[in-house]
Design brief:
With 381 residues, the protein is α/β, with parallel strands linked by helices. It contains 15 helices and ten strands. The longest helix has 14 residues, at 245-258.
Length: 381
C-alpha cells in the first residue's frame, strides 16, 4: 500500500485521472477519505519526521515519543541493502508495553513459600476446599493468604499440579427462584408451609431433611438415602435396595434403630415416589406417631437446601452415572464419617460431628447418654 504522504501527493491533481482497463476515467471530488491500517505515529516515524513534529501531531511530549519509537524499532527487511534500516512498528511497541505492565504492582504474597504451595496442593488432592484450607490455617495461627487470593493463585498456576478441575467445586450459584410451580397432585402429608418458624430458622435440634441419590437410572440397588440434620448438618447415608416407598421405609427403620427416637422430630422431603408412604414414615409398627413429615413444593429443591448441598458432596464418593450395585452400608458409613469430620464454612469451620455431640450432651435422656458413649467409640460397636 501507499504511504500517507504518497497518498496525499497522488491526490494533488484535480480532477483525478483514474487508469482503467478500457477507458481512463476522470474523478471529480470534494471530500477525500484515506483508509489505512497503519497508525499515524508509525507513518510519521517511518517517513523520517522529527520527534518534535510527531509530538505536535500525536499530542504527546517529545520524550514520550522518543521512548515509544525506541521500544518499537526493528531491522526492516530490504534485499537491496547490505544493512537493514531501523523502522518503527506500533505492534512491537505495544507488545513491549504489555510485557512491562505484567511486572507492575506489588509482589505476590506467596513469594518463595514453596512449602505453603505444596501443602495446599496436597490438601486439595485429599478433597479439601481452598476456603477450608485457609480458615483451618487461620484458626491454628499459621500464615496464609485469603480465600480469593488462593483461588487466583490456582487460576494463574502458582499452586503446583492444581487446576480448577481438581477443586471440589467453583462458585457457581444458581439464582433462587421467586415463584412456585403448581403441583400436579396434592402432597401425601403436610405442606412445608405449615412447618413451624423455629424449624425453618434452624433454632432447634432434631429436624432432618431427606432425599434419594441414585447411581444409574436403571437397575437394582442403585439408590442411597441421605439424611441431613438441619442445625448441625450431621449426615446419615443409608443403603436402600430400590428407590421405592417400601425400601425407603425399611432403610429409615434401620436408621431409627441406630439412634435414639428423640433425635428425629420432623423430616422434610420432596414429592418423590419413594416418600409417598407418609403414614409409615410418621408412625411406627404399633401405629404410634413418632415424627412429622413435611413435603416441599414441587420443583423447589431449595426448600431442602442443606440436603441438596450434602448431595453434592456425596457425589464425590459416589459419582453420578456410576453403578452402586456393589456399594455396601460400610461404604456409606465411611462416606458419612468423612463428611461429618469435614470443617464447614457455614458452621464457622467446625465439623458437623462436633456440633452433633454438643447437642447430644445438652439432652437430658438416659437413651441419649448411652448412645453418646457408643457414638464416641464408633457406631459399629
Amino acid at each position: 500500500g501507499l504511504k500517507h504522504g504518497d497518498m496525499l501527493n497522488y491526490l494533488d491533481g484535480y480532477p483525478l485521472l483514474l487508469p482503467c482497463r478500457y477507458f481512463n476515467r476522470q474523478a471529480c471530488y470534494t471530500k477525500v477519505f484515506i483508509i489505512t491500517n497503519v497508525p499515524p505515529d508509525e507513518q510519521y516515524a517511518n517517513a523520517g519526521h522529527s520527534y518534535s513534529f510527531i509530538s505536535l501531531q500525536v499530542g504527546f511530549s517529545v520524550s514520550s515519543v522518543y521512548t515509544e519509537i525506541k521500544h518499537g524499532l526493528y531491522p526492516h527487511f530490504g534485499a537491496e541493502l547490505t544493512k537493514r534500516p531501523l523502522h518503527y512498528s506500533a505492534k512491537i511497541a505495544q507488545d513491549y508495553a504489555d510485557i512491562q505492565a505484567t511486572s507492575k504492582g506489588i509482589e505476590i504474597k506467596l513469594g518463595h513459600n514453596y512449602a505453603y504451595a505444596q501443602f495446599v496442593a496436597q490438601q486439595v488432592k485429599h478433597g479439601s476446599s481452598l476456603d477450608v484450607i485457609v480458615n483451618t490455617l487461620r484458626k491454628s495461627g499459621k500464615w496464609t493468604v485469603s480465600t480469593s487470593t488462593l483461588y487466583r493463585y490456582v487460576d494463574r498456576g502458582y499452586i503446583p499440579g492444581i487446576t480448577n478441575k481438581l477443586l471440589p467445586e467453583k462458585s457457581k450459584r444458581k439464582c433462587k427462584k421467586d415463584y412456585v410451580r403448581p403441583a400436579a397432585r396434592p402432597p401425601k402429608g403436610q405442606s412445608i408451609e405449615r412447618r413451624p418458624y423455629d424449624i425453618s430458622r434452624r433454632l432447634s435440634f432434631g429436624h432432618w431433611e431427606m432425599d434419594s441419590v441414585i447411581g444409574r437410572k436403571s437397575g437394582e440397588r442403585e439408590s442411597l438415602l441421605v439424611l441431613t440434620e438441619r442445625k448441625t448438618r450431621f449426615e446419615i447415608i443409608l443403603r436402600t435396595k430400590a428407590k421405592t416407598a417400601d425400601a425407603t421405609i425399611r432403610s429409615f427403620e434401620y436408621a431409627l434403630s441406630k439412634f435414639p427416637p428423640c433425635l428425629f422430630k420432623t423430616i422434610t422431603v420432596d414429592n418423590g415416589c419413594e416418600f409417598s408412604d407418609c403414614y409409615n414414615l410418621e408412625h411406627d409398627k404399633a401405629g404410634n406417631k413418632r415424627l412429622t413429615v413435611y413435603y416441599c413444593h414441587p420443583f423447589c429443591s431449595c426448600e431442602r437446601g442443606s440436603n441438596e448441598r450434602a448431595n453434592r458432596i456425596v457425589r464425590r464418593f459416589f459419582p453420578k452415572g456410576k453403578s452402586m450395585s456393589r456399594v455396601t452400608q460400610r461404604d456409606c458409613d465411611r462416606a458419612a464419617k468423612a463428611m461429618n469430620v469435614m470443617p464447614r464454612k457455614i458452621l464457622d469451620y467446625a465439623t458437623s460431628e462436633q456440633l452433633f455431640i454438643e447437642e447430644l450432651k445438652s439432652i437430658d435422656s438416659p437413651d441419649v447418654k448411652i448412645f453418646l458413649k457408643k457414638f464416641s467409640n464408633g457406631l459399629d460397636n
